[in-house]
């Protein structure tokens, strides 16, 4: 994996900010004891398509965040039960909100207070009063940046797919969910066949290109709700929601057929590549670990049986 170049990163972030629509669907939480004033800001945000909640009692903040984690938090400084800085410090302690941007909104002009707001991890400090639309713009920029960063942290650099760690998290979450709802879930592990010889014969660059082609084949063939990841070097993971083993087998088989019969053009000709896949469904195993184990065994069997096939 390559290191992040700070210059490229900031150029890319600026680009993201430019591309962001006027109508964005960020979810914003405003924490402010002055509910009436906060609602004025909230209304302006809603006009721009944001989903906005006002929490006026600091005792409700953590519960509200757990119920629906916001993309960004706007925090008043002076509140009767606790200061905004105190509430923010608590929010910063939880792993799930560690990176959620917190924008302080305050009439406080004391530089020391502004400094402590920054030092506990505040992302911005905005002085009240501020025009509601100016506030919306500041919030939109902060949230866009934070979402773009998060997306980059969670995705694989070569393909833009989810990376290994995030994929495992998602599978665990979805297994939990389907355990509750009873809806089926299928996991598929895909490994490109004889990829070493692709690299050896055609070079690493074309190897990388093959990985990208398979990534877009998967993206174009699956539903938006399905979860696709680059699981390892030339290995992919696919989580099919609301899909049982038979359906998953059909879906992956169709993709296998399409991929292995569509040679990949390159400057000197065409290159035929295939993959093997192992599929498991959650109805058999009881947790994410055994879901992975079963799919892995099936993949191994697909390789043993001659590759270019799907085994359930
Ligand atoms: P098999 O059919 O048994 O899977 O054979 P294989 O050659 O694909 O074997 P294996 O899965 O063990 O080898 C994977 C190879 O993929 C090894 C590694 O050099 C190569 N590889 C891993 N990541 C990348 C990558 O990001 N780019 C390129 N070009 N090659 C990669
Ligand atoms: Mg206040
Ligand atoms: Mg492999
Ligand atoms: Mg391989």
UniProtKB/TrEMBL annotation:
MF-aspect GO terms: diguanylate cyclase activity
Where's the Response regulatory domain? 27-143
Q: Which reaction does it catalyse?
A: 2 GTP = 3',3'-c-di-GMP + 2 diphosphate
Q: Does the keyword Transferase apply?
A: no
What does the entry give for GO biological process?
cell adhesion involved in single-species biofilm formation; negative regulation of bacterial-type flagellum-dependent cell motility; phosphorelay signal transduction system
Q: What class of enzyme is it?
A: transferase
EC number(s) on record?
2.7.7.65
**Highest rank taxon of the organism:** Bacteria
- Give the UniProt keywords, A-Z: Phosphoprotein
Identify residues that carry 4-aspartylphosphate: 76
Q: What is this protein called?
A: diguanylate cyclase
Species of origin? Fulvimarina manganoxydans
Question: Which part of the full protein does this chain span, and how long is the full protein?
Answer: 117 to 428 of 432
